[in-house]
Amino acid sequence: MSKNSLWWQNGIIYQIYPRSFMDTTTSGIGDLNGIINKLDYLADLGIDAIWLSPIFPSPDVDFGYDVADYVAIDPRFGTMADFDHLLKEAHQRNIRIILDLVLNHTSDQHPWFKESRKSRDNPYHDWYLWKDSSPKGGPPNNWVSIFGGSGWEFDAQLGQYYYHMFCKGQPDLNWHHPEVREALLNVFKFWLERGVDGFRLDVFNMYFKHSELPDNPKKLIGLRPFDRQAHKYEVSQPEMYPLLNKIRQLLDSYGNTYVVGETFLASPEHTASYCGQDKLNAAFNFELAESPWKVKRFTRAIKNWEKALEGHAWPNYFLNNHDVTRSSSRYCRGEDDARAKVSAAMLLTLRGTPFMYYGEEIGMRNISLKHSQILDPVGKRYWPFNKGRDGCRAPMQWDDSVNAGFSSTAPWLPVHPDYISRNVSKQKSEPSSLLNFYKQLIHLRKEHPALNQGNLSMLDPQNKSILSYLRQTPGESILVLLNFKPKQIAYQFPKQIANQNWRVLFSEKRQTKELCQEQSILISSYETLLLVAD
Ligand code: ISL
């Protein structure tokens, strides 16, 4: 594997939701061997690392985000030997493996929690947030769960409540307890010793809660009870900063290990405050993925993230993950991929590590489910106001054979009915497919220092239509012009670059190497145009 210590700046990280990628055991659920079988596909696509959503034993109250054992592989995904094999095969192809650690909470089936609820004097009791009723009776404070209802669950046998931000099957750990901290740092060590290359930390800014458990202040406006509170005391407590320093030291003692965190309920500035040399390499800022199809909004999201991170950390961007509606469903009209290409071009030409989500490269759309088919606890609770997250977790569409080539048996979630026409095999053979578009831009990004390392200067959006920016190193300038509209736009080169001659580096609509010497250029409907200074 390459020794490049900046692989995570130059590289592209691809998230796999293992249940939905490739099934080799006819269980209807994807598995580790399925991922191994598809490594050549991923290497050919050009990605540098895989982030695996949780692969640990789990009762699946929240589909893997409720972990019952941090140092084992869920038997439905395979064995530890399969994991070692995956690591070896991925490394041989220069692909790193990043594990998803869910350390804010465990499953209620984790042996630690089972012990902790046995009695108040059990050695594991204080590993979780057990509290007596409030003096008035009822839960200890007003904290609510984002998945609905009170954040506190009463255990009749123990006569106490435990706290859970997510489902009641996901009790929050007590990170203030030194033995809990040690046990969780040992989880990092276990996987680092097996050779993994990094981690994604689920809702890490929730690890600590205010020790006095004060009531959260109320807010007047908000749809759910959860939104009608300011989450002042259970999220983003200051103890997280020294803990991140400690995690960083541990990771550094194992060489060049990458760690990206998922912040919960945090502004871009606050998210950025967790990133830097002695903290996380990166954290997820949701603003880009939450932007509507408006040049101004994307421009603002990019500027905000650049500003928040300025000088202290390398940016990262994503449009998809396992919690959000797929970007193709958000942006595209029907089965037309024009907007999927424009958004892909943005993701892959910005300054910062692009994160992709399986199936994004073929423009997979969300599936629609009936109420009776919903599996996600969020959808079950909030239907029809919020249909949950199953829609973006459907099986990968490999080909037009039964179940899209994902499994020879009925998959755990239905395959999108468009799989006959939208699948990897078909898009491989079509030069103008979305898959080939992603591949070309990924390879271009790798070849051009300005695209993978260069500075970024946003240019003013013209006619609200063209998202435009410059990527520059001392030796190379690339101008990125993305037409967000289904019509031709005359783009005026702004003053600061008006005297420059440009050559076409990439466009599906014109000859590469074509020279432009005019003051303006016509950009076709939804065209991605990359120009390089001549
Ligand atoms: O998806 C959401 C609600 O519908 C988000 O609020 C999500 O819960 C939040 O981003 C935290 O997500 C992470 O932790 C959850 C898990 O369900 C998500 O899949 C995970 O990404 C609890 O572990």
Give structural attributes:
single chain; alpha/beta; eight-stranded parallel beta sheet; 19 strands; 25% helix; 17% strand; binds 6-O-alpha-D-glucopyranosyl-D-fructose
Structural class: alpha/beta
Q: Could you give the order of strands across the largest sheet? A: 9-8-7-3-2-1-11-10
Helix amount, in percent? 10-25%
Radius of gyration: 24 Å
Mass-distribution shape = globular
Give the number of DSSP strands: 19
The main sheet comes to: 8 strands, parallel
- Determine the number of helices (DSSP H or I, runs of at least 4 residues): 15
The rounded distance between the terminal residues' Cα atoms is 35 Å
Overall residue-averaged pLDDT value: 96
Bound molecules: 6-O-alpha-D-glucopyranosyl-D-fructose
Query: What percentage of the residues does DSSP assign to strands (E)?
Result: 15-25%
Poorly predicted runs are none
Structure description:
The longest helix is centred in the middle third of the chain and has 17 residues, at 178-194. With 534 residues, this protein is of the alpha/beta class. Helix 11 (338-349) runs parallel beside helix 14 (434-447). It is built from 15 helices and 19 strands. The protein has an eight-stranded parallel beta sheet. A six-stranded antiparallel beta sheet has the order 12-13-14-19-16-17. Helix content is 25%, strand content 17%.
Topology at a glance:
Elements (H helix, E strand, L loop, with lengths): L6 H4 L2 E4 L15 H6 L1 H7 L3 E4 L27 H13 L3 E6 L9 H6 L13 E2 L20 E4 L4 E4 L14 H17 L3 E4 L38 H13 L5 E5 L5 H5 L9 E3 L10 H15 L6 E3 L8 H5 L6 H12 L3 E5 L19 H6 L41 H6 L4 H14 L1 H4 L2 E8 L3 E8 L2 E8 L5 E4 L9 E5 L8 E2 L3 E4 L4 E6 L1
Parallel strand pairs: 1-2, 1-11, 2-3, 3-7, 7-8, 8-9, 10-11
Antiparallel strand pairs: 4-6, 5-6, 12-13, 13-14, 14-19, 15-18, 16-17, 16-19
Helix pairs in contact: 11-14
